[in-house]
Write a structure and sequence with these properties.
The structure holds 2 protein chains of 2 kinds. By secondary structure, chain A is an alpha+beta fold. Chain A folds into 4 domains: about 80 residues, no CATH class; about 70 residues; about 40 residues; about 160 residues, Rieske [2Fe-2S] iron-sulphur domain (Rieske Iron-sulfur Protein). Chain A contains 5 helices and 14 strands. In chain A, the strands form 4 sheets. Chain A has a 5-stranded antiparallel β-sheet with strand order 3-2-4-5-8. Chain A has a 4-stranded antiparallel β-sheet with strand order 9-10-11-12, with no helix packed on it. A two-stranded parallel sheet of chain A has the order 6-7. In chain A, strand 10 and strand 11 form a beta hairpin. Chain A starts with about 80 loop residues before the first helix and ends in a 19-residue tail after the last strand. Chain B is mainly alpha-helical. Among the domains of chain B are: about 260 residues, Up-down Bundle (Cytochrome Bc1 Complex, Chain C), CATH 1.20.810; about 120 residues, no CATH class. Chain B contains 19 helices and 8 strands. In chain B, helix 3 packs across helix 10, helix 7 runs antiparallel to helix 8 and helix 14 packs antiparallel against helix 16. Chain B is globular. Classes of the chains: A alpha+beta, B mainly alpha. At the A-B interface, helix 2, strand 1 and helix 5 of A face helix 1, helix 5, helix 7, helix 8 and strand 4 of B. Strand 1 of chain A pairs antiparallel with strand 4 of chain B.
């Protein structure tokens, strides 16, 4: 059924000889195939034609035994008429891909950037040409495989992953011989000192990471707020008088004077102030925070100041609903009641937003009476009961 | 000069130096089986290559620095605004470099596709049992790759230092800080002090562009090498057994197909990046710890962690002056831990329960492993509830449902949905097994009613064709429950004694529950040599072997 050819018999043949194998007879998937044979060829194999792909034979290799093999892959697809058609389609795909590829280069040259509109056009042109190039290349290659390459289904034997016993035994022997020769087992003092010597080698890199950052100390317990420090309206960075609030209403973000551009300070010290109508806030008569109450002598003229940093994981609690006095953190929806000491009424936060003690200075501007009386922001291990 | 000659001399040159003729021939002849689901892993691989290519381009222009600069670039709305150099350089990539925006968008889309493809690939591997011996190590490597992909993605989209990603980073920091005992230190070391500091962008940058991609390359290399060495699994079908692999050879078939698929993947992300804007950081503005926008959503693969944080009730303990922020570290660590640890342990647990320590190269149809499939669906629905809760604000907005209601529902759903999903899936699988068993036993209903001479009406059935039979027949008999032997010995095997043994027996009953097929049907092509009913089947072969194959 196949013309088995010794490899070395064709050393001088022209490549055209390849065409010998091109005609398939009865090429159909139904042809008989030996069950269990290591390689099952669907379709009748054409005569094999070994080629000298590796070039001229090396010097005097004639002593090698000739390699005998038959063709496993048919040289041509079953339907040559369809293949011709497919060939044209594939070539068309590749030509269009080439044009789109040049189009990409042209788009790079033609379309400038430096403005939103220009970038938009440039992105469209570059992306479209690039996408088309790859799409057409992929389509061409797929049609090529599916319609031009002959259908084959080959089967390859699997072998158990477990090595044959002889190999395993031989490995164990070799390993043990090596272990013996290395003296690793026989001389415990070598073994132990080696292990001891590697301990610092493993530890040193970890130690080396120590200076990645300072130790936390009590840094998380405090913010930059100090007595008499003015509250600035964030953005405009202007101090605020209680009278600036014409009516009860929205929420204003405030920052400590002098730190308005210091992100590290603001990440803890940012606050919100809200002006309430008289009687809206549930005040505690005490001078320190109690759950569900706002400290009255920390407020000025029904203006209340809370930390803006959510006690859950530290997002800015930036949404405020006037009608319900709810402060909502948009990240995980912890909700705080601004009229009740900013206590948690929904969501994953466990603690109220800390209240900043406020008063007014000689010029009538809102100032801090001092720092928060508890750490702001998310919980941490050392925080404990410091509330 | 002919092509052959050029190739010939090159080949000769190489072979004389590398002795490659034999090895490359083996490589060329290697058989790759086909199934559309085998492409999922390829999508992941090719997205990774696209990420390397576009990432290298972006790194040529990106400045991983938190130094404060005043922007005077082409995006006029931010002219004169203070921002970090990282954000400014991302704006410059987008607006002042040709192709920069396209590369940024391709990088982002490819990252999303990368994670999505890994997930889909893992789901395929799980449901078809392709993780079974001898492929457990590759499954574990896959899980590490998946975890790293999440981290790599998080670092990557945080690099531009925009307002949206900054919120994500703030959350990451808050979570880190909540970890008992070491959290505060971890946070201070990662950020070089207090949040936000000026170190985090350069540090994430080097992890994002060097360390993690390096680990990726090594692990993907190992993943592919192991896959190659062990040979790919195949789906059941005619002529496919546990001892062979059926398909087309690498050269030229697989090479051409996979090359085409790379182009398709690239085309898909390129076209997505052309028409679908992603991560328009200029609209978000530079990061500022005081600002945030409502409806902030992370990339899809972080959504489940976001949902987990949103769902958790406000639990916290203070014990001996120390804070256990259960409200933060439980949702951050436990769901991810359940999914990943569960996935990592499952192959070994399944082996222990079933006592099945054979090699498996023929994939299961999901219905033929009802318990595994049900567990998988339960896990996916668990993830799904977390993921949906991560978008609870968006859901509330679109469907006009109160926000808190969604969260309250999700707190119940996170337990209820996976349990319900488990039982439904298992019943569905067993039902499908019944259907298969019916087909195997009685053949396909033809709708032709025939009257027998006795006056009795019967419906004619047609036997399954070979291909269909091979597909739906359970390729291997279920493994014997451990300890049960053919001799019917009363004494339980060592692994089945004691309390643990009883648990194992119970689990075994659950895991191996399936519909029995009577081995004498209208059709009887013994699917393979080691089927328990192979002998009975042979009696029936004559009935169907002459039947022409039928289409399905």
């Amino acid at each position: 059924m196949s013309d088995v050819t010794p490899r070395h018999g064709h050393g001088d043949n022209e490549p055209e000889n390849q065409a010998l194998g091109s005609q398939r007879s009865g090429a159909d998937d139904g042809s008989a195939e030996p069950e269990g044979a290591p390689h099952r060829v669907i379709g009748t194999p054409s005569p094999a034609q070994s080629r000298m792909l590796l070039g001229e034979t090396s010097t005097g290799s004639t002593a090698d035994s000739p390699v005998v093999r038959e063709r496993e892959l048919p040289a041509d697809p079953a339907d040559l008429v369809d293949a011709k058609r497919a060939e044209r389609i594939v070539a068309a795909c590749f030509i269009l891909a080439m044009l789109a590829g040049f189009g990409f280069i042209a788009a790079y040259v033609i379309f400038g950037v430096h403005s939103v509109t220009k970038v938009w056009h440039s992105n469209l042109a570059l992306g479209l040409t690039m996408g088309l190039t790859f799409l057409l290349l992929g389509a061409g290659a797929t049609i090529w495989v599916r319609r031009l390459m002959p259908d084959v289904e080959l089967s390859e034997q699997r072998h158990p992953m477990r090595s044959p016993e002889a190999d395993r035994d031989a490995f164990v022997e070799t390993f043990e011989e090596g272990a013996d020769a290395s003296q690793f087992v026989k001389r415990p003092i070598l073994r132990r000192t080696l292990i001891a010597a590697t301990v610092p080698v493993a530890l040193a890199p970890v130690v080396l990471l120590r200076d990645l950052g300072p130790l936390p100390g009590t840094k998380l317990d405090h913010t930059v707020w100090r007595p008499g420090m003015r509250l600035l309206n964030y953005g405009a960075n202007t101090p605020i008088r209680p009278g600036d609030f014409s009516s009860p209403g929205g929420m204003i973000t405030v920052v400590p004077d002098g730190f308005q551009d210091d992100f590290n300070a603001l990440a803890k010290a940012a606050c919100i102030i809200i002006k309430f109508a008289p009687g809206q806030v549930l005040y505690t008569p005490q001078s320190h925070p109690v759950d569900g109450f706002t400290v009255q002598n920390w407020t000025v003229d029904n203006i209340v100041c809370y930390s803006k940093i959510c006690t859950h994981v530290g997002c800015p609690a930036a949404l405020y609903e006037q009608t319900t006095h709810h402060i909502l953190c948009p990240c995980h929806q912890s909700t705080f009641d601004a009229a009740r000491g900013a206590q948690v009424i929904f969501g994953p936060a466990t603690r109220a937003l800390p209240q900043l003690p406020m008063t007014v200075d000689a010029e009538g501007f809102l100032v801090a009476r001092g720092d928060f009386t508890e750490p702001v922001g998310p919980s941490f291990w050392e925080r404990g009961n410091s509330s | 000069m002919s092509v052959d000659k050029a190739l010939g001399s090159t080949g000769n040159w190489l072979d004389e130096r590398f002795h490659g003729a034999k090895g490359f021939r083996t490589l060329f002849k290697k058989i790759f089986p086909d199934h559309w689901t085998f492409l999922l892993g390829e999508i992941a691989l090719y997205s990774f290559i696209i990420l390397l290519l576009t990432g290298t381009f972006l790194a040529l222009f990106f400045k991983p620095s938190m130094t404060d600069v005043v922007y005077h670039g082409s995006y006029l709305k931010l002219d004169g605004v203070h921002m970090s150099e990282a954000y400014a350089s991302t704006l410059n990539i987008s607006f002042d470099g040709r192709g920069g925006l396209l590369m940024r968008q391709i990088h982002h889309w490819a990252a999303d596709l990368f994670v999505a493809a890994i997930m889909a690939h893992m789901i395929r591997i799980f449901f078809t049992g392709a993780y079974r011996k001898p492929r457990e190590v590759n499954w574990l490597i896959g899980i590490v790759l998946f975890t790293l992909a999440l981290l790599e993605g998080l670092f990557g989209y945080s690099l531009p230092d925009d307002l949206l990603s900054g919120a994500g980073l703030r959350i990451t920091q808050g979570v880190l800080q909540s970890i008992p005992v070491v959290g505060t230190y971890l946070s201070f070391f990662l950020f070089g002090g207090e949040y936000p500091g000026t170190d985090i962008i350069p540090r994430m940058y080097i992890l994002h562009v060097l360390l993690i991609p390096g680990i990726f390359l090594a692990l993907i290399g190992a993943h592919l090498f192991i896959m190659f060495h062990q040979k790919h699994t195949q789906m059941p079908g005619k002529g496919r057994t546990n001892e062979n692999v059926v398909g087309a050879p690498t050269y030229p078939y697989f090479m051409a197909k996979t090359g085409a698929f790379f182009f398709f993947t690239f085309a898909a992300v390129a076209l997505a990046s052309t028409f679908a804007q992603i991560n328009p950081i200029w609209l978000y503005g530079p990061y500022n710890p005081l600002a945030i926008s409502a409806g902030s959503q992370p990339d899809f693969y972080m959504g489940f962690l976001e949902g987990s944080l949103r769902m958790m009730p406000a639990w916290q303990w203070v014990v001996f002056g120390h804070t256990f922020a259960f409200n933060v570290f439980i949702p951050a660590l436990v769901p991810l831990g359940i999914v990943l640890t569960g996935a990592a342990l499952w192959p070994f647990l399944e082996q222990w329960i079933t006592g099945d320590r054979r090699e498996h190269h023929l994939n299961d149809r999901p219905r033929n492993a009802p318990t595994r499939t049900a567990l998988g669906i339960a896990m996916i629905s668990f993830y799904g509830v977390l993921w949906l809760e991560g978008a609870n604000d968006v859901l509330a907005d679109h469907f006009d449902v109160p926000l808190y209601t969604i969260t309250e529902i999700s707190r119940v759903a996170i337990f209820a949905v996976p349990i319900v999903a488990y039982f439904i899936t298992k019943r569905v699988c067993l039902g499908l097994q019944h259907k298969d068993a019916h087909l195997l036993e009685h053949g396909v209903e033809t709708g032709i009613i025939r009257q027998l001479p006795s006056g009795e009406f019967i419906e004619e059935t047609r036997p399954l064709d070979e291909e269909m039979h091979a597909k739906i027949a359970r390729p291997e008999p279920l493994p014997l429950p451990p300890g049960e032997t053919d001799t019917g010995a009363e004494v339980p095997a060592p692994g089945m004694r004691g309390g643990l043994g009883r648990v194992r027996t119970r689990l075994n009953k659950i895991v191996t529950e399936s519909v029995q097929v009577n081995g004498h049907g209208a059709n009887g092509h013994g699917p393979n040599g080691h089927g328990a009913h192979a002998d009975e089947d042979h009696a029936a072969i004559g009935a169907s072997a002459e039947e022409p194959p039928d289409h399905h």
